[in-house]
Amino acid sequence: MAMYRAGTIGRTGRGNFGHYLDQAFEGFPNIQLVAVADDNPTGLAEAGQRLGVQRLYPDYRAMLAREGLDLVSVGPRWIDCHAEMVIACAEAGVQGILCEKPLARTLAEADAMLAACERHGVRLAVAHRRANAYEQYAKQLVAQGAIGQLQVMRGHGKADHRAGAMDLTVLGTHVLDSMRYMAGSEVAWAHGHVTQGGREVTVDDIHAGDEGVGLLAGDGVAAYYVFQNGLTAHYESYRGTPETPEVSNRWFGFEIYGTHGIIALRNSPGTEMYLYRGGLWTPDQAWERVTLDEWERGPEGRLRSETDKMRLSNTMIVAELLQAVEQDRDVVTCSSGRDARAALEMVMAVHESQRLRSRVEFPLQNRDNPYCTWLDSATLTPVPSPTGGEGSEYPSGGQDGR
């Protein structure tokens, strides 16, 4: 059995170590977590104690240079560092990387990350929540034709205080990745509508989002996607009431509509799964709750908590990542770097469509943040021509004028 040296990267106070990604390698007899990196001294010390690791680095680049790591988890939830960390891991000779979602701030960053991984033969997996037993079971039902021919999918954000653009960016990426997985097809085109307080967003609504995501706008989002195989999908995120975690978590998820049935998946990774045995929902027929013991209970029969299920999801991803490394193939059953970029593209398409006031074709030509592009175009100011003719336009603010 091949043995693997692993490290983990976090940033306490700026994304921390994500959703237990620092512990993702636990339980694997052929993986030894040997080093931790965190530029926060207190967080670094606490992580070392929590993980039982003594080789601690305030600079992740020094860890990569000295430890000869095979596997690395890039944990920060804040995504302003993902591109540089993943690229540094790839260039250091790491064989497999587990990265927190969302993958990157822009498609340009995602392109650079995937190019670096391809250039160095690195396998990249991303912590999307299709890695749970319910979504895998739903995929099996779809493949078996249990709900007939697929017709449409409908996804929802949590509708909490992050409703709209932030919800779409940090949580919608889960739902979009899962819907694309169920569709089994690439997106052909999309149309998005972004609002603020019920009106369409303007350049004045653009602001810096939380968690290092870059520029955002809008507290309401509605999106329509058309896949290459003809299947369609919707996604929406609006502020909900009452705003409680219980309501928000149960709203977060998606439904898959077929000619003979409907599958509903909510509250991942804990996940509630329901099956409706009919192609057209009517109030006089009940939904069936689906429960999977292997996900709900541990080996001793104890009910798993939400934290347990999140850890189990991470274990599934690492197991798939290991197989991809050993078999020299891409990540398949979980979300690969390519899958995560595709989900990010679905996010960016909503804002690009709003900017252009039209549908957008895939792949997107604009690989930058659409709101950066919008601001740049808004700084073009007409000036009188010295000959008295039509005015020309020049950037009066540019990067420094934002």
List the helices and strands and how they pair.
Blueprint: E1 4-10, E2 31-38, H1 41-51, E3 55-57, H2 60-67, E4 71-74, H3 82-91, E5 96-99, H4 107-120, E6 123-126, H5 133-144, E7 150-156, H6 165-170, H7 172-183, E8 187-196, E9 199-200, E10 207-208, E11 215-216, E12 220-227, E13 232-237, H8 245-251, E14 253-258, E15 262-266, E16 272-276, E17 288-290, H9 293-296, H10 306-327, E18 335-336, H11 337-356, E19 360-361, H12 370-378, E20 380-383, E21 392-395
Parallel strand pairs: 1-2, 1-4, 2-3, 4-5, 5-6, 7-13
Antiparallel strand pairs: 6-18, 7-14, 8-9, 8-12, 8-19, 10-11, 12-13, 14-15, 15-16, 16-17, 20-21
Helix pairs in contact: 3-4, 4-11, 7-11
Task: Kindly describe this structure.
This protein has 402 residues and is an alpha/beta fold. It folds into two domains: 4-126, NAD(P)-binding Rossmann-like Domain (Rossmann fold, 3-Layer(aba) Sandwich); 133-303, Dihydrodipicolinate Reductase, domain 2. Helix content is 34%, strand content 24%. The protein has helices at 41-51, 60-67, 82-91, 107-120, 133-144, 165-170, 172-183, 245-251, 293-296, 306-327, 337-356, 370-378; strands at 4-10, 31-38, 55-57, 71-74, 96-99, 123-126, 150-156, 187-196, 199-200, 207-208, 215-216, 220-227, 232-237, 253-258, 262-266, 272-276, 288-290, 335-336, 360-361, 380-383, 392-395. The strands form four sheets. Strands 7, 8, 9, 12, 13, 14, 15, 16, 17 and 19 form a ten-stranded mixed sheet that branches. Helix 4 (107-120) packs antiparallel against helix 11 (337-356) and helix 7 packs across helix 11 (337-356).
